[in-house]
Amino acid sequence: MRKLHSLNKGSIVGFIIAIAIPLAVGSLSSFFTRDTMQQYQNLIQPSFAPPGWVFPVVWTILYVLMGIASYRIYSLGFKDPQVKSALLFYAAQLFVNFFWTIIFFRFEQRGFALVWLILLWVLIVITTAKFYRLDKIAGYLMVPYILWVSFAGLLNYSVWQLNR
Known about the structure:
Blueprint: H1 9-32, H2 37-41, H3 54-74, H4 81-106, H5 110-134, H6 136-162
Helix pairs in contact: 1-3, 1-4, 3-6, 4-5, 5-6
């Protein structure tokens, strides 16, 4: 396991930026789908669907955990090819994450959203594995994200099937 750099004034700014990036991705995606929640609530929901208030709470927690994990990896030294690779996959999964919400809610393409979510899940698993190889804690911080996206996949599939 590699040694993380200690926090100093400059690294605190980096830490905040690392957390702000996934929060901004989630906020921007939510902004583009802000007026679609009523149509979503009108869909037939599976019995295990959580109430609507759960989603922003869970996603906020997940984005903060992702930001902390990415900071831990970045602090290992961006010049390291393994760090660059891990952060490239991290950026790719953030990109895919951003568009899933738009595909599912704005475009109402539930079947395609499921395929997109599977791509997201694969990218998250790869990112998590790469993070874990560099810093076990960073890898562990990504596990709730894998679990939630796995649940989201089941929910996505169920909503799609119930509303065809």
